[in-house]
Amino acid sequence: MIDQKLIKDVLERALWTAVQTFIAVYAVGGVDQAKAAATAAAAAGLSVVKGFAATKIGDKDSAATLK
Questions:
Q1: Contacts by residues 12-20 (CB-CB < 8 Å, ≥ 24 positions apart)
Q2: Helical axes 4-29 vs 33-54, angle rounded to 10°
Q3: What is the largest CA-CA distance in the chain?
Q4: Is the pTM of this model over 0.85?
Q5: C-alpha span between 37 and 63 (Å, rounded)
Q6: Residue 31: its pLDDT value, please?
Q7: Rounded to a whole number, what is the distance in angstroms from the first to the last CA of the chain?
Q8: pLDDT for the residue 1
Q9: Which of 3, 18, 51, 58 has the highest CB neighbour number within 10 Å of its CB?
């Protein structure tokens, strides 16, 4: 069962992944804002998938892969 705590955990990780990816791609990669935003959105989406998949690997109540 997916509870509110897990959803908050996954969403927080996805948000920070998006922010970090945008900054890295835009600042270091030298690409325009639209491409940096698209890359950040893709990374955030993958973070959500990883977060829910992690419940099968690590702690079932956390988006972390470690127990």
A1: 13/47, 13/51, 13/63, 14/44, 14/45, 14/47, 14/48, 14/51, 15/44, 17/43, 17/44, 17/46, 17/47, 18/43, 18/44, 18/47
A2: 150
A3: 42
A4: no
A5: 23
A6: 81
A7: 18
A8: 65
A9: 51
pLDDT digits (tens, 9 = 90+) for 3-47: 899 999 999 999 999 999 999 998 887 788 899 999 999 999 999
Question: Scanning the structure block, which residue is given the tokens 């959105």?
Answer: 41
Torsions phi, psi for 58 (to 5 deg):
-100, -135
Side chain identity at residue 3, one-letter code: D
Which residues contact residue 10 at a Cβ distance below 8 angstroms, ignoring those fewer than 6 apart? 47, 48, 51, 52, 63
